[in-house]
Amino acid sequence: MSKTEAHEQRDDLGAAGEQLSTAPREDAPNLPSLGVIGWLRWFWRQLTSMRVALILLLLLSLGAIPGSLIPQSNVDELKVQDFMDRHTTLGPLYDKLQLFDVYSSVWFSAIYILLFVSLIGCIVPRTWQFVGQLRGRPPGAPKKLTRLPAYTTWRTAAEPEQVHEAALALLGQRRFRAHTAAGSVAAEKGYLREAGNLIFHIALIVMLIAFAAGQLLKSEGGKLVMEGDGFSNTLSQYDDFKSGSLFDTDDLAPFHFRLDDFKGTYEKTGPNRGTPRTYRADVTYSEGADGPEKKKSIEVNEPLEVDGSKVYLIGHGYAPQVTVRDPEGKVVYEAAVPLLPIDQNGTATGAIKVLDGYRNKSGVKEQLGFNAFFVPTFAGEGKGQMFSQFPAPDFPVLALSAYHGSLGVDSGVPQNVYQLDTRKMKKFKDSRGELFKKRLLPGETMKLPNGAGSITFEKDLKEWATFQISQEPGSGWALAGALAAIAGLAGSLFIQRRRVWVRAVRGADGVTVVEMAGLGRSESAKLPEELSDLAAHLHEKAPSAPDRAPSAPDPEPDAHTASASDSEPAEVPAEGAEK
Amino acid sequence: MNLATTLAAEPNEDLAHISNVLIYSAMAVYLLAFFAHMAEWLFGSRSKVARTAAALTAGKAEAAAPAVAARTKGATATLERPKVVTRSVTGARDVPDGPGAAAGDEKGDLYGRIAVSLTVLAFLLEFGGVLTRALSVQRAPWGNMYEFSITFSTVAVGVYLVLLALKKNIAWLGLPLVTTILLDLGLAVTVLYTSSDQLVPALHSYWLWIHVSTAIFCGAVFYVGFVATMLYLFRDSYETKLQNGGQPGRFATSVMERLPAAASLDKFSYRLNAAIFPLWTFTIIAGAIWAGDAWGRYWGWDPKEVWSFITWVAYAGYLHARATAGWKGRKAAYLALIAFACWLFNYYGVNIFVTGKHSYAGV
Ligand code: HEM
């Protein structure tokens, strides 16, 4: 295993190169020999090493892949079922491997928990180390400044002490932390890089905890509300409800809202005729058990936020108001029946179920059922069925077919309210013996055969809207963590941490030799530029001394090369420097 | 019916038509730029530059005895800056950057300039195409894959031109970039083309502007970083071969000698990837906030979300790799390639092969 750059610098430069970051040292993975404790320590050292962090990161991304390709039960239960039905061998295998619940599976959890243990195990010592670095002082200059990535030197008439003083002042001005140690000035800048990095990693932990808490405590339910109807946030009112495993129904915020009006507007002309322009649900809501009433419009991207819950507008449809009468003309059923949309133009289907109150002509109790097919704007026949050409209710038509008998609701099996179970029902027949059906305009009534009663499609057409009500505690924390993570990242990636040393020594001939050198992390691009700038300023304070051998030929700067690349310093700037 | 799939805007057919014409014109001009770049490379091959081998051997000899003398001035102490001498970190190769495609050849250089001018022109045309498309639908032009693709390539070329204008040494990017932009646009106008209408309604939010624009920008920068990484891998094998006394073929030599040094390419791609990583993080978070408003949960493991996350983790892995022993250099570069592949799959693959909430009108 090759050594890291940092190590090589350390070897080369002694203390000066130490601790330019707080990244853990990479130990060669020698096996321990020290019994249980030794093994534990070895294991811990491995777990908190950068190498293992990297491997865990890669495992995490690998592990996330199957969840995007295989249906997930927390996203779409039906698809999972469908997959199970179609793949009889693969299905159970996937199920065993928890591939339908990747993100809550044991193995996926193991990866990220290990990663986060590693992260904590990495952050704690790094934080201490960093605090130590902040309290300490930048390390003194290495013996051979020439070995540093950026180096410059000149001879000056100024005294060494003067040079050091000027350097200290200059570096201080540039917000370096500088001090004089062992005959040279040592300075360092860019601690925010390390701070940013630590903040970023800590923010990751905050985000994870917030996310986990949210998953465990969240609740999410759906409710269809008819215009004029209300909803109180209690479990019994929901049509469907899901919650995290630590959720307690007492956690439901006690609020209430009423759907006053639903408005959908649609493009009237042009090639996009019929495409929705706006959907708006005007509601009146009150916070708490009996808070004051307030009004609000809920739109697609604008949920209502109340008591820490959010109410989203999810869908909408029509609910024709119907009245059913028995053979005597007595009203046995009167309701707006929500129908489920099946296309973009508002065509909808559903069922009308008259559960009790109806007696047939012989006075026997029966149940009635109607299959309903509705179009908001009638456009004639298509494939034997009527269809809609526009989603607004410009020309509503309701088609009904009628059954009688038992709806089968007491069989104990939960029933779909939008579907008629006709297994125990008989068709009403028309004169030709076919299923009795009819199309109704608003206000029209369909008389059942043989005086069995009637059903009226009232003029008052209602709309309904579906809402999703969710509570997701911890999302504020997740957001705060996310923002801190970005800030930390920016600090960590855009700030360079670097050290500069200045050493002035009186040479054998009595002239002071100034040496300056800089050390950054491998990617630091601006280091040579910065050093050059600092040198220029220091040079003003301690200008070059007259040449000691004026007779010598003009010493072209290019004569002193440290390495091949310096033969063209103008063209090839420092390691990584930009032109 | 899910409301989130039905809101739409009415397109202006004339503008949409103008947009198409502009995109096709841009393609034609990119094609010309492509030929000009080819000419640049061809003429450039006349000059015989082979500095790498020399530098590699010279570097070895001198590293043993770094001779650094004090820089002195003439008798008149001018206030000229002291020169900073630089030295690579131990272990790194000290190789000068290649001179670029034209390699100092006058004709090559001329064609290079022509190519860049043509690219600027094509960029303007394409930008116009994106703009008219946006005007025709009166919304951000990011409603479907076709629109993504044209915006994406516009931004990628824009990033390249800005870097050029900032006098960064990236002229070498010209040919590979223009080639792939042509491929991208070709794919866009043939396979992905969707006539301008229908906007998925959950897209009706200012988050569209924030989230999608940063996503496209990140993609463009990741893409430029990817090209640099590929070239780094080629150039690095070339240098390694030379260092081990190998003799690369004449074609390889001619091309590789003109590219920047492996170390420069590596650093360039690292800087792009690192600089854009925080923005990518932001993009994902902005998406989560938007999802919270549109779908009632900020994170739901939707395929697009999953792949954004995978891409993010892969790039984080790459950044980690650069700080980890034994993973620097080529291994880290492979990680960068994998991370970009994840991004690409997220961009094309997820839309085409996987169904999720992030499916747009007409792919
Ligand atoms: C959730 C998992 C993690 C993610 C997403 C992540 C992400 C990152 C990123 C993006 C950077 C780049 C910032 C920079 O280069 O300054 C970074 C740096 C770093 N990470 Fe992590 N990290 C994770 C876990 C860990 C763990 C478990 C450790 C400890 C073993 C760790 C230690 C470090 C260190 C030491 C650096 C700084 C490297 C340097 O100074 O160049 N990270 N991390």
Explain what the structure shows.
The complex is a heterodimer of chains A (579) and B (363). With 579 residues, chain A is an alpha+beta fold. Helix content of chain A is 28%, strand content 28%. In chain A, strands 14, 15, 16, 19, 20 and 21 form a 6-stranded antiparallel β-sheet that branches. In chain A, strand 2 (177-181) and strand 3 form a beta hairpin. In chain A, helix 3 (50-69) runs antiparallel to helix 6 (106-135), helix 7 (160-173) packs across helix 10 (527-541) and helix 8 (191-217) packs antiparallel against helix 9 (475-494). The longest helix of chain A is centred in the N-terminal third of the chain and has 30 residues, at 106-135. Chain A is elongated. Mean pLDDT of chain A is 83; it is low at 1-11 and 549-579. Chain B is mostly helical. Chain B is globular and about 65 Å long. Chain B is built from 10 helices and 1 strand, in the order ααβαααααααα. The two termini of chain B are 20 Å apart. In chain B, helix 3 packs across helix 4 (145-165), helix 4 runs antiparallel to helix 5 (174-190) and helix 6 (206-243) runs antiparallel to helix 8 (262-294). The chains are: A alpha+beta (579), B mainly alpha (363). Strand 1 of chain A pairs antiparallel with strand 1 of chain B, so a sheet runs across the interface. The structure holds protoporphyrin IX containing FE (HEM). Protoporphyrin IX containing FE sits between chains A (21, 23, 48, 50, 53, 57, 115, 118-119, 122, 197, 201, 204, 492-493) and B (316, 319-320, 323).
